[in-house]
Design goal:
globular, Hypothetical protein af1432, single chain, mainly alpha, 207 residues
Length: 207
Amino acid sequence: MEDDHPKVTDLPWPLSGADALRDELLAAYAEPSRGHHGTRHLAEVLQRLDELDAAGASYDRTPVVLAAWFHDAVYDGERDAEERSATWAEDALPEHVDAATVAEVARLVRLTEHHRPDPADANGCALSDADLSILAAPQERYDEYVAAVRAEYAHLEDDVFAAGRAEVLRALTDTSALFRTAYGRAQWEQAARANVARELAGLPEPV
């Protein structure tokens, strides 16, 4: 997996005549309060979607790429961020795409709350795998990611954050396959599980 810093100007945007919406989303991802869930994460998710496409993973490009743009459009540490991101898509997209695409984008954004797409859901599997691919990053990048997530929850005491983080990681990995595409399982599964196991081992035990 490549570990570079894509330029914002290079990010694929599938809608012509909607640059104002793109710039609004970019401004949201660039908010200073963001740690992991900022512009770099958006760029990496879009890169992983391209990687999946090049590897032969089949998905509907326009709704999946739009869902990638919207999936963390709202991120403030609250549990309903995915729902509010999906609502933003439902409000902003109708003037640019057909109703079916709007509905699919919103569905996919909501799916990223739990990352449990049906195996037959090609669009959901592609987006989920791209979003979770950070878990398979090289150790240095993974540790940057963990620190960035912690910064987003700086308002929480260490024990509270550790308990919540452990719950999230165990929920993600308590499945036979963390990644749902054939490419994701072949390329990212082993590294992701090793990274998660290492992080869990380093978290303090609950009191």
